[in-house]
Amino acid sequence: MGFLAPPLKVDLLTCERRVEPLGIDVARPRLAWTLRAEGNNRRQTAYQLRVGTSPGLADVWDSGKVSSDESAGVPYSGPSLASSERVFWRVKVWDESGQASAWSRSGQWTTGVLKEADWKANWIGHMGAQPESLLLRHEFEVRSGLKRAIVHVTGVGQYEMSLNGRKVGQDLLTPGWTNYRKTVHYDTYDVTKLLKPGPNAAGVLLGNGMDNVHGPRYTKFTSYLGPQQAIAQIKLVYADGQSETVGTDGNWSSHAGPITFSSVYGGEDYDLRLVQKGWDKPGFGQTWPKAAVMEGPGGTLRGVSSAAPPIQTHETFQPKLVKELRPGVEVWDLGQNASFMIRLRASGPADSAVRIIPGELLKPDGSVDRGSVGGGDCWWQLTLDGQRATYFPKFFYHGCRYLQVERIAARDGQLPKVEKLEGVVVHSSAPEVGTFSCSNELFNRTHRLIRWAQCSNLVSVITDCPHRERLGWLEQYHLNGPSLRYEHDLSTLFAKGMQDVEDSQRENGLVPDIAPEFTVFQGGFVDSPEWGSAVVLVPWQQYLFHRDVSLLERHYGAMKRYVEYLRSMSKDGIVSHGLGDWYDIGPGAPGFSKLTPIPFTATAFYYQDSVVMAQVAKMLGKTEDAELYDRTSKEIRQAFNRRFFDPAKGYYATGSQTSSAIPLVMGLIEPQHRASVLAQLVKDIQAQSVTAGDVGYRYVLRALADGGRSDVVFAMNNQSDKPGYGYQLSKGATSLTEAWDANPSSSQNHFMLGQIMEWFYHDLAGIQPVDGFKKFRIQPALVEGLDWARATYRSEYGVIESGWRREGKGVVVEVVVPPNSSAIVALPAGEKLVGSGRYTFAVGGQ
């Protein structure tokens, strides 16, 4: 009788890639679980799901035993659920020997508002002139025997809700930025513990967001999409089975709030003298005007299923240095450039104020230099009421390292006192999934440099920078897609982003360079194929990383319309408009492509989009479309090579790094010319280091790594005396800068050139998706000059580990494959397919 391994154990449960989510508003949410196991080659062969109204019950749905090795993206297939309903679920699995696991612990999810008719609330706001911030309040009774209370709430521009004087949830800057005329996200919270029998009070504070951008301080653009307004409903469920709903309506009251200036670009002024004490508690006692019932901004209300992970607080930085410039004015150095909100404790006489001006750099006189963040006025300001106070902003964050603190005297000349000032990092709460380190400390510092820029720009939109623009420039979504995905689980943020893209797409199919399109630019800044192609390439990357076809299915129409738009803009197969290889290093100031023709990259992306569309159409069973795009891609390829390849020289276009790399990676090149084009790429890099820009650099890295020349990637980035990551670090950068040379007039917190993160994970550590990460490849680049490298990546199936180190004359490679997945381990001696478990391989040596 053979040895029987212990049963599998079911671990982390997720619904729609979230742990115990609130506000799921899809009829068939996707469920997933990870497994723990002892021994090697452990896998699932069957599962059983049970869903019930209480933990352990199956009174809603029982799947029965299902023969399947799927443990991610398994759809709930039970009866339709009601709005605001909580259900519990658990799973057990059978292993490769037919052994059943124990039942998992119970997970849960709560539905959102599943039908428009289930909204029992109105949009409400303020009647008359619009203040910079608005308070809405309402008192209501809660009977004894309250079992559960759920609130669905949103407000535009941005809102904060409270119940009985306590903030609801820990999220910031809600709701996520969208095209509010097309989509408005609402949030769902369990507020049972915030309520009590008897009188209760609900409050909503509203401020401006991307819906209302105005001066007179710094703005990237101005906008006004309508007045501040909110909608909310609280469902009260009692032990006796009865329920009731408290919704926003004309019985609520409204009043101007204490924020006297609110702008996502210009800052926030908070006046403690205007605080309505007790306004969000029962028994307030003051009579406010009735709220006005309003029409709403027009967008469809959507719950968590299509929303980005919420923005929350993370690390807190204490000042490293405080320097007085003159009496009442100091500069505080937080030591790190990041996306910050401040936490200020101050005291002083009524009417005195503390103004805090953020910036990334300092002027020669030591004051904050706002040149890299757009210039113009911008600050947080707290006006005191004579009492000690602690202030944390409601609706404004800013990318910065330095804070210029200016204390403004009261009418009697007395200055306030700053007792404490901290920088609180705020960004998306998307789970961290990757770790990387190696024996080269410059590369470790580069990893941290890029990671800070990535995190700073992960909000409800993947922004370019956390200060002067805060816009979702779409080329970053796919060019940095793998680099971002190896670090954080951004599947839900990318899904939200693709809804932004479809909401922004024009009737003729054009996808603008930014989404949401809060402002309309001109020329290449509104229409560049390398940017618009995100509508095709992001859903495709979602499939490659996660085996998730949902974005391909959901946005196929938008993808098709965009490629048809490119066809309409082409002439003889060539597309000639756009920005090209933005911010490459050439003559003159950075910006439009200097070294690579704009039609070259535009046409290459038209080709890549068509190739992907052929694959997607085939996958989705759209045979005619698949044939069309297959023909189209061949025609574009022929036109591209006729126009740009020089057989006599053996390279493309100008021979720039970008014009060599893109054909190699996209498959535009004929096989017999690959060697000469790769040689041209290596020659150019060795002559002058990196010159490729935003669009081309990822393809440079991929062309070199895929061509077996990671040694060139290593050499190109293992230096500090030419523009690049090491050069930025040598200039004192603490987050990745917009320009390769850390130009102080450019942003000092920009992740667009951070594509080497993909190389760290995909190539140095060698963790590469094949069938998502259900089946993956481990193929580390054992680069000379490194003694060791290691990385982990938490996939849907568990944590993948890959590391290698030099021992004597050989190399030891160590790999961990999670249960229910497999890996192809590709080393110089050959390839080996392995199941789950921990493995050690020896490469070379005596």
Would you kindly provide a written description of the structure presented here, covering whatever features stand out?
The protein is α+β, with helices and mostly antiparallel strands and 846 residues long. Strands 23, 24, 27, 28, 29, 30, 33, 34, 35 and 36 form a ten-stranded mixed sheet that branches. Strands 2, 4, 5, 6, 8 and 9 form a six-stranded mixed sheet that branches. A hairpin with a 2-residue loop joins strand 45 (822-827) and strand 46 (830-834). Helix 9 (598-619) runs parallel beside helix 11.
Per-chain topology:
Blueprint (H helix, E strand, L loop, with lengths): L8 E7 L6 E3 L5 E7 L7 E9 L8 E2 L3 E2 L6 E2 L10 E10 L11 E5 L11 E3 L8 E9 L3 E11 L1 E6 L2 E2 L15 E3 L1 E4 L7 E10 L4 E2 L9 E2 L4 E10 L4 E5 L5 E4 L2 E5 L3 E5 L20 E3 L5 E3 L8 E7 L3 E6 L2 E19 L5 E7 L1 E2 L5 E2 L9 E5 L5 E3 L6 E11 L8 E12 L5 E5 L2 H16 L18 H5 L1 H5 L5 H14 L24 H4 L1 H13 L3 H5 L1 H14 L28 H22 L3 H22 E2 L4 E2 L4 H10 L7 H15 L8 H10 L3 H8 L7 H6 L25 H9 L2 E4 L1 E7 L9 E8 L2 E10 L2 E8 L4 E6 L2 E5 L2 E8 L2
Parallel strand pairs: 2-9, 15-26, 24-33, 41-45
Antiparallel strand pairs: 1-3, 3-7, 4-5, 4-6, 4-8, 8-9, 10-20, 10-25, 11-17, 11-22, 12-16, 12-20, 13-14, 13-17, 18-19, 20-21, 23-24, 27-36, 28-29, 29-34, 29-35, 29-36, 30-33, 30-35, 31-32, 37-42, 38-39, 40-41, 42-43, 43-44, 44-47, 45-46
Helix pairs in contact: 4-6, 8-9, 9-10, 9-11, 11-12, 11-13, 13-14
